[in-house]
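Open question from group meeting: does this chain pack into something compact, or does most of it stay loose? Before anyone orders reagents, we agreed to write out a predicted structure and look at it together. Recording both the input and the output here so the notebook holds the full record.
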Amino acid sequence: MTQPVIDRHQTARRRLPIRLTNLKWLVGVIDVSDIGKKDSNAPVRRRTGLDAISAVKMPEGLTAAVDAWAEAHHLSRSDAICKLVELGLKIAPAPAHTTVSDAARIEEIAAHQIDLLLDPALPADERERRIRRLTEGPPEFSHERIDLPKPPRT
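Structure tokens returned:
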């Protein structure tokens, strides 16, 4: 009796039904205790988890640099890109806006420099008026300044 040849690819392509009567020749070949055991030689598929898949378009030079970094750190390209992005995000950029304390410090430095330029023979109240006028600007333009809070409307 000849044994039928079953091609896994052929059955997958054509969806041929496999009946137990066609597999009688397998009796004795497969031990019942083997069913359900994990074969240690079988390739293990790595679980990717539930993370989203993102595609990245990079120039060849940058891709080569990422690949070199990945090889130096024994990582895959995907893991290397993930690690490099995490490292880049950890470094927080310096705040671009000036805070209130910075503005007050700048105004104080400006007033000191103006005081050094003024004539020392001037009376104290005239010196303060000139410093205030130069740091705050003329009152007729105060409504045009964008760095000052707007007065409440009545």
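Observations to bring back to the group:
The two ends are 106 Å apart (CA to CA).
Helices lie at 8-14, 60-72, 77-90, 100-117, 124-136.
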